[in-house]
Structure formats: structure tokens, C-alpha cells
Amino acid sequence: MKTELKQYTIRDITQDFQYNELEGKGLYGLGGKLVIQPEYQRNYIYNDGKKDVAVIESLLQEYPLGLIYFAVGKDSAGDAILEVLDGQQRITSIGRYVTNKFAIPTSAGEQYFSSLPQDKQDLILDTKLLVYICDGTETEIKEWFQTINISGEPLNAQELRNAIYSGPFVTAARAEFSSSRDPRQQRWGTYINANPVRQGVLELALKWIAAKQDTTIDGYMSQHRHDTDVAELKSYFNAVIDWAEARFPLEPVPKEMRGLNWQQFYAQWGTDAYNGNATVQRVEELYADPAVRTKKNIFEYILSGEEKTQLLDIRLFEDSTKRAVYAQQTEQAKTDGVSNCPDCAAATKGDVKTKIHPYKDMEADHVTAWSKGGNSTADNCEMLCVRHNRAKGNK
Ligand SMILES: [Zn+2]
Q1: How far is the CA of 366 from the centre of ligand 1 (A)?
Q2: What are the backbone angles phi and psi of residue 194, rounded to the nearest 5°?
Q3: pLDDT digits (tens, 9 = 90+) for 209-259
Q4: Is the dihedral of CA 300, 305, 306, 308 positive or negative?
Q5: pLDDT tens-digit profile of 133-166?
Q6: DSSP-H helix ranges across 154-212
Q7: In terms of CB atoms within 10 Å, which of 112, 131, 264, 302 comes out highest?
């Protein structure tokens, strides 16, 4: 791989700058000869009113912006172009500023580029950026890209995979899953917890199809790298979301439904018959039950046939309830000359039959299990010695 150090003025770099608001990415500069966001780059994440402003303030204070890297590439017509390898966030911030897309706070109030005094505008446009231009094979450039990227915000796992498996599949997959302006994101976001811009939605869609096919995200991406469409990925993702929505048709969708492992639920119970209205009623009952402490597991609990009550982390007895029941049970046991643990008292022989256990050696048990309608109140509480309570197990 050959590298060459060059200087470009911001005036050159931002010539014919184009920014795609919809997809949140800078597209072209250098009069169309610079591709600001090649397909393996992540979306623009500096537009937070802080990092983008900091870039402009650095220019005005004549602080260095750091090295920028371009790679030599070819456009679809085979003509030589440059692609931004590292520096995309900085260049996009500058390009957006000089095209009046955002303002910076100054002592004279908010200032757009066009409202800056001429000398400040020139200061920005004449600033020279130091650029390394790299000419090498696709593999060399990608490997190097992974190395240099440690300087800025590191790429997350999916952003790296997009770089490694870049091609028509990644382009199509990003178009489908990675735009934060896509109105479908709002609906998806009620069931999944992922950031489209940082490729989280795409990562989840890939994770789901990979789980279904018993492979990994890398395995799936490498196998489909040259596909030009993402029909299978899209259809499975939508099938899972559509099922989640139909299976639990709650309005509004409770926040606890967000981020559950819907793919796993779908794989396990997706073909079971169900009644949407009855399900809604049951969810509402469980939400209203103060004994249910882990609301987010209500959905899995229902799907799994309401057997695994431990999923719901049922509220146990209050300390005061246990002490009151212990005192009452112990007093009665002493009067009767038997153990204060009813199971010990029922023993046929030995000194356990009359053993009075201290409070610390006893545990509370639901006489009628919660799953059968029993409450965590004194009238449904029985104190058992540790050994006998554990022997009864979870119920
Ligand atoms: Zn006992």
C-alpha cells in the first residue's frame, strides 16, 4: 500500500458539499471527487450540538484537527475518486457548517456560517487539512482502517462487520435498517432496544436470522456478502415483530415489552394458537397484581404456559407478617407440647417432634400457592423450619 501526505483547504474539500438529511450522512466533497461516506463507514453521529460545534470552534481558534485519511477508489464508471477512510465526522461537521446547516454559540449570539464576519469565514475556508492518501487493495485498506479507527470513537462490533463484509448486501441492509428517520423505526422501537444509527437494529435483525439458521452474524454476513437484496433478513425480522404485536395486542405497548428476546419466543412458541383478547386481559391482571415484582417476564410467563412462577419473582411475606405468624404458631405449639414447625410436629419419632425452632431457623411458606390465587398475607402464611420448607421446593 502506498501512502502520500497532502494538504487540502476546507474551501476545496467542501466544494459542492452534499449532505443527506434523511440518511444522516455526508455524501460528496471536492467537487464530487470525494466520497465522504463509503458504504463501510458508519452514519454521521457528530450532529449533537457539541461535537460538531467543537470542530468549528477548533477551526476558529486555529487548533489542529488531526490527521485525515483518504483512500483511492473508483466510482461506478471506473473513474478515480477518493473515499474518506477516517475523518468523516469532522468533514461532515465542517461541510454542514459552511452550508449553514447549524449555528455555533458565540459571545455575539448564535452564528451561522453566513452570518460570520468575512475574515472568520475566510479563516475557516483557508484552513488546510492534513490528509494521508492511501492507495492499496481493498483488503489492505480495510485492515488499515480498523487500525487507525481507534483514534476517534471506536467502531462497535456491527460497524466493524459492515466494514469487513462491505458490498451490496451491507448497502441494502443499511438502507433497510439503519435510518433513524425511517418511520418504521418507531414501531420497531416498541419491541426492540437498539440504535439504528450505530447499526443496532441491523445487528439485531442479523442476530435473529443467524439464531434461526443456527449460525453467527459473521457466518451469515459472509455467506450473503454478494447478495443484492436482503429479502430473507427483512422477512424474518418482520415476522418476529408482527407476531409480537399480534400475540400481545396491547395499546399502548408497555415499556417492559421493549428489548425482550422476541426471536427466541417466536422460535419456541410462534406456532402456538392464541387468543389476543384473552392475552391482553391476562397481562393486565398480572400487571395489576402487586405480588408480581418482575413485570418484564409476564410475557414469557404467559407464553410458557404460566408454569414458571419464578419468572415473576413473586413478592414474599413482609417481615412483620412472618414474625406475627411465628409468635402465634410458637405459642400454640408450646401449649400443645409439639414442634412449632407443623411438618416436624407430624414426624413419627425423634426429638424433632417437639423441637421449638428459633425464628431465624424458619421460613415462610404460602399455604395456597400464588399461582393458585394465594396472597402473601398472614392468613395464607405458615412458618416451616428451613429443612421442611426447602423440601417443599418452589411452587
Ligand atoms: Zn420442620
Answers
A1: 15
A2: -155, 150
A3: 999 999 999 899 989 989 999 999 999 999 999 999 999 999 999 999 999
A4: negative
A5: 888 887 787 777 666 655 556 668 898 788 778 7
A6: 157-164, 168-177, 184-188, 200-212
A7: 131
